[in-house]
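User: My instructor asked us to take a sequence, write out its structure as tokens, and then describe one feature of it. I'm not sure where to start. Here is the sequence I was given:
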Amino acid sequence: RYAVAMPTDRYHRQTLVTTVGAQGQRRLGESTVLIVGCGALGSGSADLLARAGVGRLRLVDRDVVELTNLQRQGLYDERDVQAGTPKAVAAQNRLQAINSDINIEAIVDDVDASNIRAIADDCDLIIDGLDNFESRYLLNDYSTAAQRPWIYGGAIGVTGMSAFVLPPETACLRCIFPEPPSPGTSPTCDTAGILGPVISRVAAHQAMQAIKWLTGNIDAIDRTLHSFDAWANTQHAMTRAGPDPNCPCCGRGVYEWLDGERTASSMVLCGRDAVQIKPATSQEAIPLQQLADRLAEHGTFHCTRDVLHGRLHNGLEMTVFENGRALIKGTDSTEDARSAYARYIGT
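Assistant: Let's start with the prediction itself. The structure tokens for your sequence are:
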């Protein structure tokens, strides 16, 4: 009997794929990918890209690991919950143990108009792992202004959606969705739930398109907008034309989120242990009773025609007005208040 020599290169099975090969693997190793948001989608994409050998991953997230994350966020475990580890740091630790050959950078921060250029300017590609529309429109503005591709992804309940945005060739996010939904009108994972396999499907599509782009297989990139309902077993692919010349962003070069004109404001209310969150715009009044119904699983809430008030199980009090303005009581941290607003109210 003769011993069979086994390959020692960790990427051997990947380089056997003819469309990747040794040259594509080198390109992956020379690439830098920014993943904004290390929740379910971000951690799923980061795991796949770290194993694929992307040379540098920059992970950005503002939150810490919580017990409810473990159902769908595969990079974390109960030790991270007990330690209250920031997601970006926990993801960095886990991915570095998976692949010590690559560089992984963790940034514990909220991406906004003041820091996105510093965070993203040296990256080849951006992957969306966000939980709110305001930050997605910021990414879209930056992507168009900097001519940097990004991969949109979203998942809620049993449905998912993803699209590769490649300026100036493809339509941008605002070409497809000219305006974000008004606060309180869209469900979130905290109010509508989410199934883990839905996350895996969207993250896999994001990572697959990223690998195509980074290895130079640009013609193979999926340029359709994908959406699916995993429970009903339906899927749709919307073919997108090029940029809309009437689009404020990629058509006319107006970058409202990047310039800070459409950013929600937050203000600590002195002496009240509370923070006010005021959305930049609101196209329609919030259906307060519907919001109260969605929040029933997370605390005790009641509403009148003009205002909703209640307390979450975590102790925070929330007062929400029809125009989207909210008072978050029980914290003097604008970051914590913005996070609670995104989780329970929406964009």
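For the description part of your assignment, you could build on this observation: The mean pLDDT is 89. Try explaining in your own words what that tells you about the chain.
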